[in-house]
Amino acid sequence: MKVSFPYMGTTIVYKKLLELLGHEVVMPPKPSQYTINLGVKYSPEFACFPLKVITGSYIEAAELGAEVIVTSGGHGPCRAGFYEQVHRRILEEKGFNVDFIVFNSMFRDFKQFFANMMMLKGTNSWFKIAQSLLMVYDMIKKLDILEKRVQELRAYELKKGETTKAWEQIQIGFDKASSKKDLQQAFNNGEVLLNQIKTFNIYDKDRIRIGIVGEIYVVMESSINMKMEELLGNLGAEVERSQYLSEWVAYNALPGFMNRTHEVEILKKGEPYIPINIGGHAKQTVGHIVDYSQRGFDGVIHLMPFGCLPELVSQSIVPKISQALDIPVLTLSIDEQSGTANSLTRVEAFMDLIKGKRMKKIS
Amino acid sequence: MKEFYIGIDVGSVSTNIVLIDNNCDVHYSAYTRTNGQPLDSVKKGLKELQRALPADAYINGVGSTGSGRQLIGTMVGADVVKNEITAHATATAHIVPDVKTIFEIGGQDSKIIVIDNQMVVDFAMNTVCAAGTGSFLDHQAERLGIPIEEFGAMALMAERDVRIAGRCTVFAESDMIAKQQFGFSKSEIIKGLCEALVRNYINNLGRGKKLDPPYVFQGGVAANIGIKTAFEKEIGHEVIVPKNFNIMGALGSAILAKEYILETSSSTKFRGFETADLDFQPSAFECGGCSNKCEVIKVEMDSKVVAMWGDRCGKWTNSL
User: Fold this and answer.
1) Residue A134 class from Cβ within 10 Å (0-12 exposed, 13-18 middle, 19+ buried)?
2) Where are the domains of chain B?
3) Name one GO molecular function term (chain A) (predicted).
4) What is the DSSP string of A75-105?
């Protein structure tokens, strides 16, 4: 069967997993203005922005012949929980015959999780499944290590755009890997590529580090968040995201009692501000702001899709945290209407604010 | 020879040019309407400035700001191209050193800037809505048949209070019409409108922020005494309107240019007043490289491409 998935972040990872299991993968195109236009046209007006973009993505994938879409569900009172139902109807109305396999946390509904696994498993042996999962997890971890270096290097590159190009090359390299040995080779090649990038020297005390927090889709998918990481990098800031795939996988794959991942710690840090689970990534958002301030970051960019309920809650708590911990936070709401020029002005002014804070003057 | 710095603020409604000396004293300033022609208004402004320039003057640096900062910065050869938030804050901190809160209302945007110890610590800018900016007042003044210059003073003549819905420009307008039909006078309606605008502004931008005095009110709308009075009523404190309230952005960018030149001891990239005579042509085309179909802006000077931007991937921007 021809399988596809929502486009988010380093998509070669999902592609690799499905390929290893012997499925024919339909790679959805990277979200573009065309994708957004499609999504906005066929989605409910008041749905959140990620739903609209993903609608567009699915339609593009369906046009390319996708028969099954593998996606994750939401948890808590967040609209991500009904994405699949809405998308299913939209695709049906458009006349596409597409099936969905939705993975929710296996600790909530193991039966469904198992049934989903069986569908994807096909004729593969359990050994093969375990092997593939481990290999892909290894790949995600390696990619995340390289990406974190990319996010750091970009601020200091001499030739603008060089690091981003290298990062694209690295992903192509990983995409071709099909064994453990290949992966290591791709990783080594990636390191070489990054080492070749010429940078200017900077004193440790002059480094500016900015964290990006918020809803996972707008944080991870650069094509719809104005390439926030590149933008900040070009303005001279090192960037770290609140979400990395490897951390997400580790957190979601382990049962509560033995879960010692980074994310558990983050959630604890956010607890004084949002004690209960309100869905989406609101708790992570506030937790990460606390974490970044403790780690001495200079500022935080908070991205939220327009109309995202959990992030609206965190947005209203942000000023309090920002004041209590003395860390500047800029909230940007993102949707199809967002004027880039306007947001750019804000990000530039935010960078001036951070630099000014360092130098004790305005800019 | 005397050294001067030029600051240019190209906004949606007005184009402002200032000339300052090494002590940041303003020697010349001009506030003109952009009328949708940023290039022409800057060219005209530069020519007027040249005429007013002392014979022994030397331009040591240029800064540009405002929504047209990139285009104009390329045209004149600006040393510093800065966003308007930083530019405004710089100017205000220079004129009112202990300022804590800046209210800035321009033609199509409005901002609150919170300053502590001469540093910007927080800011907010209006997002998707232009209710509560100069253009809206302009439009309403026209509808009521009152020149915008007299608009504010009329608000002070009101005898009664009337509450106008201020959330949205369109609804504010229908509410105004209704209130006119109820028999409220023009000046009362204007007062109600000023208060609605301020209420909307504080609710939208001041949300969750601690706004402390001294308050400084600037931008084109600060000329409107009605709005100033409404601000003072809303926050219950005196609001300072600086002398150069309508050219603060330009002043700030001139100061930033001066600081940049002196700190880096570099020489200016200013193309000279002759730029006003150069053929300078911006154009836009749709890039067909991918499905993003970015609108790329290309700027040509004497049919040589000098700048490009607007592409998401950097294909054109980095091609120069």
Assistant:
1) exposed
2) 2-89+249-277, 97-241, 280-319
3) kinase activity
4) -SSSGGGGHHHHHHHHHHHTT---EEEEE--
- Kindly report, residue by residue over A308-338, the tens digit of the pLDDT: 888 989 998 998 999 899 999 999 988 877 6
Average pLDDT of B111-140?
A: 82
Q: What predicted TM-score, i.e. pTM, was given to this entire model?
A: 0.88
> According to the model, what pLDDT value does residue B280 have?
80
Q: pLDDT confidence of B254, banded at 50, 70, 90? A: very high
Beta carbons within 8 Å of B149's beta carbon, 6+ residues apart? B223
* Residue A114 clears pLDDT 80, i.e. is over it: yes
Q: Please state the domain extents for chain A.
A: 2-124, 132-202, 208-363
Read off the pLDDT of each residue in A136-155 and give the average, rounded to a whole number. Answer: 93
- Record: fold of B97-241: Nucleotidyltransferase; domain 5 (3.30.420)
What is the DSSP secondary-structure string of B11-65? -SSEEEEEEE-TT--EEEEEEEE-TT-HHHHHHHHHHHHHHHS-TTEEEEEEEEE
Given A161, A323, A362, which is nearest B90 (Cβ)?
A362
Q: What is the pLDDT of residues B274-312, one digit of tens each?
A: 877 878 888 888 888 877 778 888 888 877 888 888 777
pLDDT of residue A228: 92
pLDDT for B158-170, tens place per residue?
888 888 887 777 7
Calpha distance A280→A275 (Å, rounded): 14
What 3-state DSSP class applies to B110?
A: strand
3-state secondary structure of B87: helix
> Do B2-89+249-277 and B97-241 fold alike per CATH?
yes
pLDDT of residue A111: 84
Q: Which CATH number fits domain B2-89+249-277: 3.40.50.300, 3.30.420.40, 3.90.400.10, 1.20.120.1810?
A: 3.30.420.40
Out of A320, A346, A352, the one facing B120 most closely (by C-beta) is: A352
Asked if A316 is an interface residue toward chain B (Cβ–Cβ < 8 A), one would say yes
CB contact under 8 A, B121 and A348: no
Residues of B in contact with A345 (CB under 8 A): 67, 83-85, 125
Cβ A24 vs Cβ A186: under 8 Å: no
CATH code, residues A2-124: 3.40.50
Q: Which residues is B83 bridged to in the sheet?
A: none
Q: What is the ipTM, given to two decimal places?
A: 0.84
Q: Give CATH for domain A208-363.
A: 3.40.50.11900
Q: Do domains A2-124 and A208-363 have the same CATH topology?
A: yes
Q: For the beta carbon of residue A275, count every other beta carbon within 10 angstroms.
A: 9
Instruction: Kindly list the residues from chain B whose CB atom is less than 8 angstroms away from the CB atom of residue A324.
Output: none
pLDDT of A141: 92
